[in-house]
Amino acid sequence: FYQSVSGFTGVYGVKHKNLTHLIILCIISALFERGDCVVRESLLERRVRDGEMLDLYGELLTDKQRDVFRMYVMCDFTLAEIGKSIGVSRQGVHDLITRSRERMEMFDRTFRLCDKRGKLKEIKKITEENKERMPKDVYTALKGILDSME
Asked: Quick one: angle between helices 79-86 and 90-111, nearest 10?
């Protein structure tokens, strides 16, 4: 018990005076070690994907959808904050975000730009890793092409 607590607090450099906080941190640590906190990781992955989708397909949304989705994903506003700023209920904001996400997912199923962007990053990484093995003119031409595709 002490070892996991000291290891957990050591990583974050936090000293806890309250025993309740220590117990909560131990429980969270144990859940992560067991893999029960996958929900948080998938939420983070979803947020990253939402940002990529907004970057790729945001211009295809209506102005209102794009603005609300940007406030939610990029500015990390709560549904209530967004609702108050645009004069819509919290549920209305949730529905708008859901419809926007579904619409961008539909665009991605059609155009596959997220997959293509990922493959492009992979090709750039491989190119950089093998830079010394390529003739300089080939590397320069390939790098120029890959950079122009971003």
From this structure: 100
What DSSP string describes 94-129? HHHHHHHHHHHHHHHHHH-HHHHHHHHHHHHHHHHH
pLDDT, tens only, 124-142: 999 999 999 989 999 999 8
Q: What value does the CA radius of gyration of the chain take, rounded to a whole number of Å?
A: 22
Residue 13's Cβ-side half-sphere holds a number of Cα atoms within 13 Å equal to 0
Between CA 25 and CA 37, with CA 31 as vertex, the angle to 5 degrees is 110
pLDDT of residue 118: 85
With tokens 């493959």, the residue in question is: 119
3, amino acid identity: Q
Here the tokens at position 86 are 């645009």
pTM of the model: 0.61
